[in-house]
Amino acid sequence: MCYDAFNSMKAPKQNRRRFLALGAGLAGLTACKKTVPSEIGAGVRAYGERSPLEKAARDVKESITPGTGATRTPLQDLDGIITPSSLHFERHHAGVPSIDRAKHEILLHGMVEQPMVFTMDDLRRFPSVSRIYFIECSGNGGGELAGNPQPDPQKAAGLLSCSEWTGVPLSTLLKAARLKPEAKWVVAEGADACLMARSIPMEKALDDILVAYGQNGEAIRPEQGYPVRLVVPGWEGNINVKWLHRLHVVDQPAMTRDETAHYTDLMPDGKAQMFTFVMEAKSIITRPAGGQKLAYGPGPYEVTGVAWSGKGKIQRVEVSVDNGQTWTDAELQTPVLSKAITRFRLPWQWAGKAAALQSRCTDETGYTQPTIEALNAVRGYRSTYHCNAIKTWHVKEDGSVTHV
Amino acid sequence: MCYDAFNSMKAPKQNRRRFLALGAGLAGLTACKKTVPSEIGAGVRAYGERSPLEKAARDVKESITPGTGATRTPLQDLDGIITPSSLHFERHHAGVPSIDRAKHEILLHGMVEQPMVFTMDDLRRFPSVSRIYFIECSGNGGGELAGNPQPDPQKAAGLLSCSEWTGVPLSTLLKAARLKPEAKWVVAEGADACLMARSIPMEKALDDILVAYGQNGEAIRPEQGYPVRLVVPGWEGNINVKWLHRLHVVDQPAMTRDETAHYTDLMPDGKAQMFTFVMEAKSIITRPAGGQKLAYGPGPYEVTGVAWSGKGKIQRVEVSVDNGQTWTDAELQTPVLSKAITRFRLPWQWAGKAAALQSRCTDETGYTQPTIEALNAVRGYRSTYHCNAIKTWHVKEDGSVTHV
Hints:
Chain A has helices at residues 27-34, 120-123, 142-145, 153-157, 170-177, 202-205, 372-379; strands at residues 70-71, 90-91, 105-110, 116-119, 129-136, 160-169, 185-190, 197-201, 210-215, 218-219, 229-231, 244-250, 265-266, 272-273, 282-287, 299-308, 314-320, 328-329, 331-332, 342-350, 355-363, 392-395, 401-403. With 404 residues, chain A is mostly beta strands. The model of chain A is unreliable at 1-34 (pLDDT under 50).
């Protein structure tokens, strides 16, 4: 039954190229044989799970306030642009409610001619859309901005994930309800115990927002808003209201707790900026990065990471290995999608000396990611929101990588 | 803490539009309130799971031969183009081996100047690529071809899934090993107990094949080849060798069991076609489809489904509701990617009468999906491979949908 040339193969020759010095001589043949099981493997199953040997995980910390938890996506362990739903970052203000899809409804009311209620099955009758979008908490990298740089990609930028979302354009529902002339804002409210709510300007509500029920092909996960959430492309995570159960059309923002006491940007003069919705262009190298080691010694490595912009497509990512003195264009994985993560890569020959790795991106508006010094000069050290500064990883001569 | 306009809202008015008759009067307000929990919800967790209320599943059947199982993706339950890894179809010839990533190696040898062995960490040093590709078993829809049409999308076409795969181009490894002039084929062998192997022409091996370790952002799932598999874009599933542990470069095909006794196309004259690799353009409507019901009675529904071609991009999908007499162009979800699933959609006003729903796609080569009659006229009824015929769903006057 097996391919019988197996027995006639020649042993690998000694490999002289350092790049591929991967166990020379007969080691390959031996290893190859020893991985073949002699017995039939496991059977089929209805819903699969990952290998028990795989340990990539969100970082779980107990919060001092019940229900106000957050976990971060392990960016250093991921490939491509899709975040596995099981590893999508979490941010809850009253825990994850247990909602029965069959009973859940969305109320659309206020300054509309025709108030409406939608069951989840009702939503399925409207024309749907699927789009790959990132969601980033505006607190992502808050430690960096406050002068407290984080030691690895997960801690530094893990409040970022990217999924294929499916749902109905919010504009479709608003048009069906027929907006009154004075309708200028939509207040979206979640069905968690705190009724988390945010105000959205009508221009954005009629643009690209999705009332989403699908995530990466299946139903949205409980932590991401099951059975339905808003996806507000490119805007701070908090406004992507989860467990959506109400859309209130009004003429002015509701000034909810999460747009006044929180999610405002405290400036050096003590005043706070409000309604700073857009997540600006940002990138981070995820490998090699803090907490990792260049285990092969001097030689070739792949530098890879992720870039994203709430204003559209990533146009360019540059990588520096000398702390920003010189820059080289990285390759962008295609297709480059608007308001989605873009994977970048650059082959790098490590000479075995100390190095400082940085990435900086430019989006299609021409905006370029700033240094942390430039950002602090404007924003001071009192805010923990909307940090999009360049992140630096130090490579030591022994190959270990740390944060600066 | 909650958005206090909640108490001042007006009750929804009576809704007169049939399309949106969703529980009129005060029902919405009542329902809205009743879904709000009064207690803090569940906490954060390291690796998420779907809602326990969600039941989409692969169909598990015991096989009479141990280890030779298959399960199908529940296409009717999915959105977008990404198949959740937990629901990717399975096809095993000796069960799912349990492989330790840390010990697994790939041997590359034969007609090369430099035989090589790669550990999984070694592969990580090469320039990587992420691409969204479908994989379809060539037996998908075999019942249809043999005159035994299947009752729902999962049974009719569920040996089809689509993932974002990450890995190293096979061409990179072959070039590193330096091919000898006589090298014309690569035999890929899996580390399952049957050492499942297939021969790949060198032209394809040097084109777009990936030696893939990532699936939808994380490590490839055990059923899909953990820790490493071939992804052979557009070609029949069986040649996308899983649990890859050997690449043997040779001058002629190895004539393995799975390219002689199986995965050949038996023609009406009793002769079999071999090495029919490409999966040709195909589509299927997944909603409304067999096993479902148009539960709202006459009125608007969304017709949606998936199309794909092993030869490149889908250029056009047409939908018929009258058994192929007239056709209307469906909308294609963008971006349309080469050798990936393309989602199509068409709003449909059901008049409450019997209807016959079909989709047919055309790919960028100009090839159009055939009728089952046209396919049977050429291929007969003895083969169960490479069926890409148009699938018909019958809608009855009571709204129930069945296969023909």
